Amino acid sequence: MLIKKIYSKYIIARENDLSSFDFFKRIYHSLVDSIFFRLTLWRVCNDRELAMVVHGQRAKRKIKKIFRDRLLVQTEVKTVADFPKIIWWSWLQGENEAPELAKVCLESLRKNFPDYKIVIVTNDNLDNYVKLPQTILDKFNAGWIKGAHFADIIRLNLLAKYGGVWIDATVFCTDNSLMKIIEKNDMFVYQNLFSQNKGLIKMSNWLIASKKGNPYIVESAEILTSYFEKSCYLDDYFICHIIMSIVSEKYPDIWNKMPVYNNTDPHMLQLVIMNKFSEEQYLSIVKRASFHKLNRHLLLTDSEYYLYIKHSVGM
């Protein structure tokens, strides 16, 4: 059964012009990585979160080594034009094929940002905005690059080229107050201030705002794209966050100028969404955050909170 599964994946890889050598290199790395993680888990007494930090630190060291020369080259930071009023939102199969939660979140953006151009990026129009290397497209089609990581490549390349705000499909918006602050700055991400891995991963990437040509975003995009173009396996699930964290060390002036907002408050609605609805609690949550990262894998049919936010955008 296992051999049949591997053979099936091999055929898909070859159909997408990926080499046999890279395929077996990928298999080998997956095995080695699994062994390394299990050994790490044993060493830290089954503390999975700590094991993931150790795993991520290993990937960080590798990335810094691979791109060492690139990271040493200083890039001039120039003041650019006004913040572009563009929101990038993506469901690759198209808006009509998106799950209801994503459609609700999209309507919340349309409601709160009528003065913004909302661009819906799909498989059909992606090439109109950014030209990704064919190798990356082949790896995505073969399943070597998962949807989440393909979206990481897309978001950084779009922001580097055009600027604007990337907002994940499952981010619900309740007001425009934070956006008014974002517009006055060169870039914005929610920062990872409290979790165990804050030294490794400095931000969330489900909402990234930037002016066009921001050197921090441009370099993050180029390194991430190069990584996926050359690598036939994934060193860590959070490779985009790790690369962005590494590049932030090169551009401390850009990073330190950002307004500081933690990435905990935007998850509060998700934490209570299956509870009985409380207007007092809801108002407290939306007072603390303008954007709310939700989870499309939760069954929200009977959620009173979900019904409330759905009705709030006219759905």
UniProtKB/TrEMBL annotation:
It comes from the Bacteria. InterPro entries: AfumC-like_glycosyl_Trfase (IPR008441), Glycosyltransferase_domain (IPR051706), Nucleotide-diphossugar_trans (IPR029044). GO terms for molecular function: mannosyltransferase activity. GO terms for biological process: mannosyl-inositol phosphorylceramide biosynthetic process. GO terms for cellular component: membrane. This is Capsular polysaccharide synthesis protein. It comes from Ligilactobacillus agilis.
